[in-house]
Every structure is written in structure tokens, then in C-alpha cells.
Amino acid sequence: MITLSHVTKRYGERDRAFAALEDVSLEVAPGSLTSLLGPSGSGKSTLLRVIAGLEAPDSGTVILDGVDVTGVPPQRRGIGFVFQHYAAFKRLTVRENVAFGLRVRKWPKALIRERVDELLDLVGLTGYRDRYPSQLSGGQRQRMALARALAIEPKVLLLDEPFGALDAKVRADLRAWLRRLHEEVEVTTVLVTHDQEEAMDVSDRIVVLNEGRVEQVGLPRELYDRPANAFVMGFLGPVARLGGRLVRPHDVVVSAEPADGAAEARVERVVHLGFEVRVELRLAGDGGASAQLTRQEAEELGISPGDAVWVSAPTARTVIAG
Amino acid sequence: MTASRLALRFVALGYLAAILVVPVAFILYKTLEPGPAAVWRSITTPAAVHAFWLTIEVAAIAVPLTTLFGMVCALVLARTRVPGRSVLEALIDLPFAVSPVVIGLALFLLYGREGWLGPTLAEAGIQVIFSVPGIVLATVFVCLPFVVREVTPVLREVGDEAEQAATTLGASPWQTFRRITLPAVRWGLAYGVVLATARAIGEFGAVSVVSGKVSGETETLTLLVEKRFTNFDLAGAYAASGLLAAIALATLLAMTLINRKGAVA
Question: How far is A211 from chain B (nearest CA, A)?
């Protein structure tokens, strides 16, 4: 259980200070996997580092499992931290990397060996234990970093854009793997990401941050279907603006004939994306919007660039006045 | 290999030969010219033996101090954001910018009999100027930038993520320094120590002002070379120079061996 109350952190000189975190209060349920989602500069990494104790907040408190740790150094918080660029100990082997936290805790050698072998088995690096980090791929390094963080049996596991430096395929694999790992270890986990798909994919709950403030907290689906404001709506998925309302492009209905409440628009481009078809539209006096149709719908409509159409969103589940 | 590369290599090696290799080789040749027995006599006079040990003693005190202070300064420069860091950054280079003779004079003004601190220290029974503490002080002063300037860029380059990782894993600041930071900057540190040692052994200007050049008491090897040279004892000057060069070579060799051992471990 992580409880943050009224955490504020500013950087820079007094007159030119910018707030990385502005009065952030948050609860992370025990055993959950929570994502901190936001654009760069939203304060999500700073928040994670405040939980870890790597940054001290200007005001506010951090409580881990009922203990106020605001003034406690990171060494004694019992946290596991995984960095975007692995932070591998280059001169130590995989096994020594994983053993690091146990060695500084002066565990007996035999116990360390046992625990390290167990962890390497968990992350699937048993065959690599005597290699150096430079001999591993990015994905393997990050799994080593995770094993290293888990070795000390942390109360909370903090992941700072852990897949940010990896390519798309490895990212997707590791995401699924992390999900399974979390089910197995059940440690309270907080993951920082700027990738909404990643957040929706792996987490139980998502905290959306923007300019140092919490915009919304909820289940992935809740955030997508009922965003609290235009920012959350825009950050979690594509948005179309129809007659002063924001809707999801897949809720936009395009028809060849005028209908009640429909707005006139001109087709600018029709993009075929496999099963989906994206229709880019120019609305009369209202700027651009895009609609997402199935291939079948698009074929039935038979539209091409330059055609006049009527658009509406009568059944839209997600609507924000904007 | 292209002609331009060959030309480049020729210029680099030619320059080194003209400026460095030929004069040093000539010194060695001149040193050995009178025959080994004469050289041995020349470097085993009481004054020479004392100068040799004094030089070693000064280096043995000044180099560890420079290493310790240099490491601390490098950590401050590369890892903290304290106000006044830029002032420190500029001050570190002062010994490079100011002539060693001026440094010697400054120490003389501060610690001399008429200086600010001299009388107080004299009352406490500590004589700095014209004695060994003064020579050590001057040497520490001129050696100051070597370790800082070698270690700081390496610290900046390796970054602090691994250190933070060690911290979150429960390592104390000292454990993090010893197990993570120090191994990462080992090469830069070793090189800085080699440069500082060479400078400590070879320093002349600052030491010349503060030592008083008392033969058998405050005369280092460089001062002995100069004295013999100005007294037209050329053979003696060459012999002492050869001894200096031998110490420098031994230091370089020792550091290389230590580094190789470290690299294997």
C-alpha cells in the first residue's frame, strides 16, 4: 500500500520555479499494478522517484505500508527500482548483479546463491548467469534488472519506463511477461509510461498525470470510456471533434444522405489500414476530424476524396464538451 | 595506407622525436658517459641520497592527499548542484593557470615569518617555510587539478543511474562508492594519479621558492639538479637528472602493472 498526500515538488530558482508535482494525493492498492501515465514533463517520473526516495518532495508525505517514509533514505525504504536504461552494474556478472542487494545486506553466501538461482529461473536467465551485461540483449538486461530489484523482496516495485529503450516487438513480449510475473510475485507495482497502449495493456489501474497534477485515476476501461476531461480523453486514444463535442472516431457515423443532427463534411482522404478504414474529413467551418469505419462499412458507403457526406455520433459512449 | 595518413604519422612521430625522445636520450647518454662508477659516486653523495628520499617523501604525502581531495572535488562537481559549484570549477584550474613561482611566493606570503599565518604557526612550533611542510604544501597545490580533471569527465560520462540503483538496493553511500563508483572511474583516477605523481616528483618552481634549498635538509632532486648545473658540475647534474627520470619510469611502470592486475580482476 502506497499513500501519497499533498506531494509538491518544484525545480529551479524561486522566481522561475516550475512545479514538477503540484499537490498530488494518491493511493496505490496493495498487490496492484498501477501505471502512472502522462506526456513527458507531466511529473510521472518525479512522482516515482519521490516514492523511491531518490527525490525529496518540498512538501507532503509518502507512506509505505503504514509507515511514514518521507524522511527515510532510499536504502531503508525496502523498494525495488528498475530504470529505463537498465542501470546494470557493468563490471559484475548477471549473477553478481542480482546478488548485489543481498551482498550489501550481508546474507550468507549459500543463501544468496540459492535465492539468485531462484530469481534467474523466474526471469528466464539461468543460462546467462556468468555473462556480463554487455553480452545481453536489451530485453535480457531489463529482466536482469527486474530480478535484481526483486531479490531484496521489496515492499513495492517501481518501474521507470522499463521498456522505453526497447524495440516494439520486444516491448510487447516483455509487457505480457511482466503481467504474468506480477501475477506470480504479487508485489505492489507502480509503472511509469508515456505509452497509453502499454498502460491499458498491463495495469489494473491507471493514474493520468498532466503538468504535475493528477487528472484522473481509474480502471483502464473507465478512463477510456468516461474520461474526466478533454486531456484524458485525448491522451488515452484518438479524438474527433464534431459540432463542439469530442467523440471517439469509431463512434462517428458517416452517411451519404443528410440525417437529423448530422453535420456536412467533405472527404479529404480515405486510408485503408487493413481491417479498419480511416476517413479524414473537413467539416463545414469546424476544422478537421477523422472517422474510423470497418472495411465493410466503407465499401457499402463507397466514398472517395472530394465527396460530400454527413457525419454524426448518435451512439457515442464517450462524449466530452470541448 | 594512404599517403596523407603516412604523412600525418611522420609528422606526429617526428615532432615527438625532436621535442621529447632526442633530449631525454641525450641526457641518458651524457649521464652514463663518465662511466658507471662515477655516476654511482655522484648519486650516492649524502646530499643526493637525502634529496632522493626527500623527493619520495614529499610525493608520498602529496599524492595521496591530491587523490583524496581530487576524488571528493570530482564528486562535488559531477554529482551535486550546490551553489558555488561553478566557482569551485574555476578555482580548481588555478594551479594550471598561475606560474608555480607565483604559487611559491603566495605560500611564502601566507606562511612566512612576516606572513598571516606564519607567526601563529611558529609559536605552535611548526615551521612551514624553508622546511618540509612548505614543500609538501607547494606540491599539493600544483598537483591539485590532475585528479579532479581526469576523474570529473569520467564521472559525468558514466552517469549516476548505477549509483542510484545501488542505493535503492540498500547500499550505503560508502558501499556505493567502493563497489560501483570507484570501479567505474578507475582508469581516469589511475591516470590522474600518474600525472600527479610525475608532477610531484618533478615540481621545481613553487618548491624552489618555499624550500630555502638547504642542502641535506630541504633540497629535492630537481633543486639538486639546478644547483649542480649552476655550479658547473654538469656530470653531477646529468646523474641527478637520470635518477629523476628513473623514478618517473618506475612510477609509470608500477601504475601500468597495478592497472593490468586490476583489469584482470
Answer: 24
Planar angle of CA B45, B49, B53, nearest 5 degrees: 170
Q: What is the pTM of this model?
A: 0.81
Nearest to B167 by CA among A78, A120, A70: A78
Q: Is there a contact between A282 and A268 (Cβ–Cβ < 8 Å)?
A: yes
Q: What residue ranges of chain B have pLDDT lower than 50? A: 264-265
The three cell numbers locating residue A4: 501519497
**What average pLDDT does the structure give for chain B?**
86
CA distances from B170 to A55, A126, A150, A321, B78 (A): 16, 24, 12, 50, 22
Cell of A268: 479529404
CA distance A131 to chain B (A): 15
Q: What are phi and psi of A81, to 5 degrees?
A: -125, 130
DSSP B247-260: HHHHHHHHHHHHHH
Mutate to test the interface with A, among B168, B175, B180, B186 (most CBs of A within 10 A): B168
The β-bridge partners of A158 are A81, A190
Among A296, A297, A269, smallest CA distance to A281 is for A269
Rg of the Cα trace of chain A? 24
SS3 state at B178: helix
CB contact under 8 A, B168 and A148: no
Of B168, B172, B179, the CB nearest to A81: B168
Which domains, ranges and CATH numbers included, belong to chain B? Answer: 24-264 (1.10.3720.10)
Give the span between the Cα atoms of A77 and A64, in whole angstroms. 8
- Which pLDDT does position B38 carry in this prediction? 83
CA–CA dist A129, A133 (Å, integer): 10
Q: CA-CA distance, B124 to B222, in Å (whole number)? A: 30
- A96 and A89 Cβ atoms separated by less than 8 Å: yes
ipTM score here? 0.84
Closest alpha carbon within chain B to A76: B170
State which residues of chain A have pLDDT below 70.
Answer: 13-16, 286, 322
Residue B139: enclosing H or E segment and its boundaries? helix B132-158
Chain B residues within 8 A of A100 when measuring between CB atoms: 166, 169, 171, 179
Query: What DSSP designation does A250 have?
Result: G
- The alpha-carbon gap from B82 to the nearest alpha carbon of chain A, in Å, equals 12
Neighbours of B127 (CB within 10 A): 15
